[in-house]
Structures are given as structure tokens and as C-alpha cells.
Records
---
Amino acid sequence: AYAKFVMPAVFLYASKSIELMLIISLAWCFFMCCLATLPFIGLSMELAALISGVALATFPYSAEFNGKIKYIRDFFITLFFVGLGMQIPLPSVDAIAKAVLVALVVLLVRWIGIFAVVNALGGDKRLASVSTINLSQISEFALVICSLGMNYKHITEETLVILIWTFSILAISSSYMIGYNWTIYGMLCRACRKITRRGPAVKADPAEMPGEGEDHVDRNIVLLGFHKIAAMLVAHFEHHNPHLLAKLHVIDFHEH
């Protein structure tokens, strides 16, 4: 109720100064965290921080909040991962083997949760496959939930260690998989055709297609939609930076 009826008036008054809104938003988050530590509340500080962030996301100033607290957020995330890293004991073969097994299970389940859904919604197999490859890692929010479970004695320290190693393996491997996603897609298509003697035709990356696609290689400025702001930007390029027009790629859709 306080966030719904009182906070809008407070932020409306403080909207004249971005710095004042930043201080008020941080004060709101710390207030919710302190309130959660009271005995009759019974919430964790992590859950209280999540609730306060959800409340702030409902305001139209959330974009300004994200821009201002980005460096503070990265600093505390770094401290969080340092704290998690210090909890890891010396690596053992058993823990790493289990982490590799869990990572393989995650990669297989991704094809059910992402590829099957995208394909069922009408997306082609190339889009579904590349999306699955790009989303092969697990979220760092899983580490937060797992650390909370260990604090409440719901899981053991061994589970947290396995999850941390799984996160590390997938984070490192996915950075290479994203860079070679089209190559991996082509290899999967060729393997599928060899096994079933049919399968999706390998469509090359549009940036790598010869002939007509060669003039789109350097178009790394992408505009999603073309309306008033995009038209003003293109007009500015035409008058002041005409060399940027060769790097411009506009994606728009008109129902006619």
C-alpha cells in the first residue's frame, strides 16, 4: 500500500532532480531490507530487496534508476561472487564430474524448453536452434537461491559447490558457443541429416552469404522500426555523417 499510494507522490516531487530520486530509491531498498530483518516479518534480506526492486520497476523512472545504479550494482555483484568463490573448497574430481554431468543435462533440457517452444510457436528451426545455443548458460540468480537454501539448511554445501562449478563451466563454454553458433547449427544439421537422412537445410548466416548479401556485412547500426525519431536520425546522418548510411540497417514492418 505504501509503494502504491505514497511512493508515487514522493517520486513525483523528487522528479526534478535525478540525484534525489536515486537517493530515495536506494533509501527505499535499504528500508525494505531492514524491515525484513524484524522478527515478526520473517523474510530474508534478498527477498526484501527483490520486492523493493519490483516495486520500483512499476514507476516510469525505472530506466533512470538502472542507469544511475549500474556501477553500484556491478560492485555489489562482484562482492557477492567473491563471497561465493571463497565458500568453494578445494576442487575434487567428484564435484567437477557431477558439475559436468549437470551441465550436460542443462544443455539437453534447453532443447526441450527453448527449441520445442519456439518451434511450436511458429519459429523456424534455425531461429529455434540458434536461440537454444545462445541461451545455454544458467542464471546467476540460481546461485542466489541456492545460497539462501544453504543458509536455511535446505541443501548441503556440496550442492552449492556443484552448482557453482556448473555455472562456471556453462558461463565459459557459452561464451564460445555464442561466437560459433552458426557453425554449431550447421554441424547439428549435418549430423541430423546423417542420422535421419533428412533434416533442415543449412542456411548460412546472412552476413556471410555471397552476392546479394555482401553489401550487408558492415551494416552494424540496426534500427528496429522506422518512425519519427528514426527518420530524424537518418536525416541527421544524411547532412552531417553520410558515411554512416552505408552501415545503417533498418528493420520495419508495415501491414498493407
Note: Residues 206-215 have pLDDT under 50 and may be disordered.
---
Amino acid sequence: PVWDEKVHGQGPGVRFSMRGGAYINDAFSEKDWTHSPFPGDPIVPRDRYNQKFEFRGTGIWEHYFEPVSDFAPGDKSCIDKPYLRMSHENIVPGLHANAPWAPRGWRYGGPEYLMAHGEVLYADWYVPFRKYAAKTTKKYIRFNEEIQRRAACAFENPEHSLGMHIRHGDKWTNRELIPTSRFLEYAQAFVEQGGKAIYLATDSALVVDQIMRDWPKGVSSHIVQQPGMEALSKDGKAAFDLGLSAHRANAEALTDILALSKCTFLLHGLSALSESAMYLNPDLVNRAVNLEDLVFDEGGISVAHWKKQILPQGGLIMR
């Protein structure tokens, strides 16, 4: 989620004292000892000092998620414990690009041993990242009642459903824009096999218009969307650059993630949002098709394979 000053910056905030001076040490992979540091073990100096901390507003997390623990800032049990800070470099490029265990939505950069360009197909490349992310998600990520309610209202009956995440917006800057016609082939086969609702998650109003205007009515009539979507681009901009409330855009994106995770099948491209849906529901990986595999791996899953091998896994028998 992105910070929204009008929502997350309001409220009394918190003030508390803990021991300062602790920091994160750099770690390196045995495959790259010098060039790509990522967050390692915490370093707690012996001469650490008592420090007062103050954070304004309500913060971001609990607007969308349940607390990860029962810790409350300022609890007396923590006064003598170290307060650990992460530097910007720990996060970017440390976590974002260099950490070998950090999940990635696509090959967007980092040391070559992690990217494995030309050596590993995307389907195989994703395996360790998805495994680690699913384990972490199960342990720490729990949507609050508001987001759960939004997803339930947006997608009331996910049985025998297809999720489609069509990411356009500003995606053209570093990835392939998948035309809606590529999704249509698979969506049409899904309907022909007896599939029910098709949940559409997109950041583009143009995608919605094109589907509802150009797709056969027998397919477009199955489309379900989150009602009242505002974070929809019409000109190649990112959703967070449209001048809308960041809080609103956060809630809409997280609602789509949760709704997609409840789908029986998933069609998607290279996107962190699509990956997040599979972190929430790891079983979805085996019933998902990454349509960008055709671009990057010169292969991918054909419509025939989709009908014969994948749809039956979700209870749709080939007709």
C-alpha cells in the first residue's frame, strides 16, 4: 500500500522509548560475495542508548490488515529491547533486487545468478520465490474485515470461476502489454466448458471498454468486476499517478488480490498483483496460465492444453 497523508497521517500517533543504535548488517550470497548486499543479521551495539520515538497518524498497516502480533508500541516489556531500523539501501536495492529469498513478480533486475536469463523458464524460476512468499503470507498477512467485506461484495460466488488480471496502465514501460484478444481465447474455452463467473481485475478503463464492446456476449456476460472502481487509467499512467486518493487505490488493489485468490482458475501476465493472489492461494498456481510466457519463454500453455489438462483440475470436464 501507498502512503495517503489524509488517511494514514491523521490521528494521535504514538510515542515510546526503546534502545536505539541497532542496525542491519549486510549479507552476501556465496554466488556473489562483493556486489549485491542484502539485509543480514541485526547488529546490536553494547553501548546502545535509550531513545524516544514518535510516529504520527495511524500508519498504513491496520487500515488493510490485521496486526501481525499483539505488540503495542510503548509496552513496558520493550523499553530495554533494541529498536531496529532498516536503511533505504536495505530495502532498495537490498530487499527489492538483491535478496535471494525475496519474492519477485518478474525478472526486473538484480544479480545475474538470480535472474537466470536464458537458463530457467519462468514457471521454474518462480518456484522458490512463490514457496517462500506463500509461507510468509500464511504466517503474517491477514486482511481486516473491511477488505474481506469488499471482496465478498465484489465477488459473491467464486465457485468454478476464472480470474483475469489484465495489467495495462503504465506496464508498457518495462513489460509486454498483453492484448485482450489473448485472454479471450482462454475465457471462451472456459465458458464453453461450463465455467461460471469471470472476475476481471485491471488498472485500465480501456481494457474494460474493449472487453464489453468487442467480446462475444456469451463471454462478456460472465464478467464480474469490483463495483465503483476509480483507479482506472485511460492514458498509460499508473493507478497511483491518477490524482486519486492513494487509500482508495490501495483498497481497490487489495480487494482485487483477495478476489482473484478465491478464483478456481487464473489468467495473468507478469505482475506482483497476480503473484500476490497465488501467495494467498498456492493451489492456484497449478490452475493458472501466465500469458507472457509466450513472449519470454517462446512456449507457454496452449488453449488446447488449457481445455484438456487445466480446466478439468477445477471441475470443468472437457466437452
Note: Residues 22 and 44 are 5 Å apart (CA to CA).
---
Amino acid sequence: ALGQARTTAARRGVRLGLLLGACRAVSSAAAGPPPTRTVYLVRHAESRWNAAWRRLNVAAMLRETDHGLTVVGVDQAGTLAGVLLAEPIALGSPGAIITSSPLCRALQTAAVALCAAGARGSALVVLPDARESGGRLGFGRDSAGTPTDEVERNLAAELRGTGADAAATALRRGELTLDLSRLRHTQHWWLPLETAAEKRARLRRLLDELFRLTAAGEDGTSPRVVVVSHSYVLRDLLRDHVDEGAPFAASELRAALARRTVPNCAVFALDLAPMASCANADGAATHIVGGRLLAGAAGKFPA
């Protein structure tokens, strides 16, 4: 009798397990795939460090930190405005948010592009987690920044020094403003010598924040978020933060970016989605599930 009772209980357990599995499958199918949101990542225009690296001028590379753009870079940033004004970003229409790394070369690129696009009255949102990955070159001097209280003054000086008069004037008049609220908790927001674990955590926070910024408003439309950042940021994102189950994981574009420097002012669309299987304390971690080259590197990478 005892054996028969155990057999009956086992059968009931199997049926219950099958029923629960079916319910989960139906629930998962009803929920559908996780929501996907698109952000646009731009590499900054040519900086003085880039020019010195190209000439193998080590002295110039080590002479300064938080370097700005070259005159060529200012021209590149002005040309970038045309890409930002066009679809799918459509900078001139409501719903576009421009964010930037706090490093001067990225801020200067964003400021010049915004003014060239006629986007006066814009607030440039500064994201500390979008800064360049530390410890790559020059003992971290390429990723060392300016204290928070000096960021705007340093940007103004760089704009004036490279002839970006329209952007310098807009900044002085308050027609272009910097939202430094995310930096206010500390003056020393950068980390020149960054460990691999620190970098992965920072870029995970960046993706989570970009995903939040693209949340739909009351009218149901999602903002179009642009982030002006750096070559190694994009390369590290695509190496460590892609959903390996997505078709994009095996794409030629991802493979190419892992091997090459991202050209100045190249523009990429990145599709983001939360992954519950990689949840952290704040919920599902955001991963990249798709990517496309939009502009700035014709012939360099596959479409």
C-alpha cells in the first residue's frame, strides 16, 4: 500500500511539473520578447591626442590631460550635425536627447555639432560612465579628466582656442548648457587606471542608464538618445555586453569593431534590451542585441 501511494504521488508530481511548465511557456509566449530600445553612439571628433598618436609624437601625447579637438576635429564635429539632423535621430525635432562623456574632446564634439545643427537652448547631459576606458595608453593620461567645477570653464577655453566661436558664444549666453548633475557628488569623477571588473561594472551602469533615458513618455513616444563617447567604450561594449544569443553577436560588424579603432565621428545605432537571466540588484541588466553603422566610416566596416 505504501509503495502504491508513493507511485501515485510521483505521478501527480510529474503531472504538476508538466502543468507548471506549460503555464510558464504560455506566460512567456504571451509576454513576448523583451522590449528593445535604440540609442545612438558617436565617437568624438579628432582630438590632439589622436593627431599626436598618428604622428607617433609621444611628447605631445603625454604633455596634457583632458585634451580638446584639433581644428580638423572642429570641422568634423560641424559636419556631424548633418547626420544628427537626419533620420532616424532627427535632432531638430522634439524628443532628441544629447548626452556626452565628461571628457573635453567628447563635450566639444557635442557642443559644436549642436550649434551647427541650430539646436540652441539645448541641455547637454553629461554622463560620467560614458568616459573613455582608463589605463589604455599613456599610463591613463588619455582618460584623465578635469575636476567637475572646472569642466565648463575648460570646455569654453577649448571652444575659443579652436575657433568654434558659435559654440563658445552659445555656452557663454546660456543658449547651450551642461547638465552636470550626475558629476556633482565628486570632483574626481574619472579613473585613469581602471581594472577590467571596474570597467565592466561602469559600462553596465551606462547601458542601464541609456535604457532608462529612452523610456517612452506620456504620449507613448520614446526619446532618441545620442551619446558622444569614445572608441574603446564602443569596442568594450560590443565585446563584453552583447547578448550572445542574439544574431548580432555573430555579425561581421561586431567582429570588425573588436579588431579596429572606431573612426572619429562614426555613428552607430545600438539596440538595447534587458536580460532577466543577467539580473543585478536593480533588476534585469541591459545588453546590446543589435547594431548598425549609420555614418562616418564608409568603406571601413561592413553594413
Note: The first helix runs from residue 2 to 31.
---
Amino acid sequence: GAERFYSLENNAARTEPLEQAREQDVATQKAWARHPRQIVFDNSAEELGFEGKLQRVVEATAKLVGLPVLPKQTRKFVLVSPPDPSAFPDHELTAFTVTKTFLKPPTVLDDDQLPYSHSYVRVRLQDDGATSYGHVTVHLDPETRAQIERKRRCSPREYHVHLTNADPDRTPVRQRRLHFLYDNQSFVVHHYLDRDCSILHCQAARQDGSIAFPPFLRVGPEITNDHTYSAYHLSKISPDDDDDRRAVDSSRDSAAALPPGKPRPA
């Protein structure tokens, strides 16, 4: 946090000195480390002030509840080698498996909808056996062509009904995901179980875009805007399927990893 602004004089809710507040901050982050939707809002963009920080919270909350927002913070990088869960000695991991099934496009679109891109259902299975289901519709911003996701939870019955409308030209995509915190940043590794490919998603809410990568991952080039690595693209069944997968493998193998722990600029 912004420790130089910490004071007991301007906030009646504060009762603990700075050292104790720092300890409680760390304990709170650890207590929620296993939650798949944890996002840390630090003070890396102090020029925006507290109002800027609140705006980042509002945007993230809107996205979580399914309101249309443009993803501004998440950046993606290919990993040179798959992650080894045993290499995370000081970090609590949340591990789970996600299966995405892409659906046929609707035959009729609402006139007031944004341009339609695609939709899918997903099932998430945690290691403790907990299961959740969801339906996601992806639209395109008519000006920027950026993707806008509308997400909602669905029941197991709804999920299986949607499966009857699965796109026959696409295969389900299975991912093993590892979520962890490092240096006040939230990371998720997406490891594709049916192909040799691992993608690192950094969900740090830092306005300047800088990232400090954990030393136990070999991070390659940024692929934030490269749709070759998207689950939607990789699910496509086509004669060029093998060529696409070879391109992904080639990019990963030729990646020049950063020195461990070195921050990467925006």
C-alpha cells in the first residue's frame, strides 16, 4: 500500500499502527489466495490517486458480475516450458480444470445486440471436487473490434442442454489452470491438456503495465493480441489444424525467456 499516506488521524476506522496494518494486509492476501477471482489493487499508479484506484475496482467488479466492460489489464505471455507445480514453494496455488465447449451461432440475433462473435459453455472442476458451470457470450465493439464478454452462471441442467448445441466444427478445449500471487500481482497459467502449450495470464491491476515475473517460470513473448493462442482459435477443426499447432510450438521453442524475476515494461 501507500504507506507514506497511512495515518490514524484521518480515518476513524483505523486502530492499528503501520507495522500491524502491513501484517494484516499480507494475511488478508494469503487468506484469499485460493479464490479464483482474487485481484490485488495496489498503488502502483499513484498519479491517479484514490479515485483512480476506485475506478479500477469498479471495472473489475463489473466484469465479474457480467456487465460489458473492455478487458484493459490482462496481458498474456507464452511459457517456454510447462510450469512445475512443485516449483512454487512459497506460493499457495489454486488448481482446477476448465473445459470449454463452443456453441453453434444463433440463427436469430437481437437487433439491439452488439455484433456477435461466439459463445461457449464451461465447466470448472476444482481439486476438492467442487464444480461450477457458466455460459459466456462474446460480442465485438463496433468501433474498436475489441471483445466484450457477457458471463453468467448456469445450472448443470442448463449446461447439458447447451451441449446439445455444440459446434460440430470445433472440439472442446480442456485447460489445467494454476492461480497464484506474486509481488502483489495475480497470475493464472492456462496449460492446454490436449496440446503442448502453456499461457501465462497476468491480471495485475497496474496502470503503467509493468510486470515482475516470478523466477520459477520461463516467460516467452507477449501474445496478448495474438488470436492464434486463443481457445476459440485452437478449438477449430480444419485441414490447417496441424499447421496452426506447429506455429504455436515454434513460437514457444524460439522464445527468449527473461532473466528470472526481471520486470517487463508495458
Note: Helices lie at 18-31, 49-64, 156-163, 231-234, 241-253.
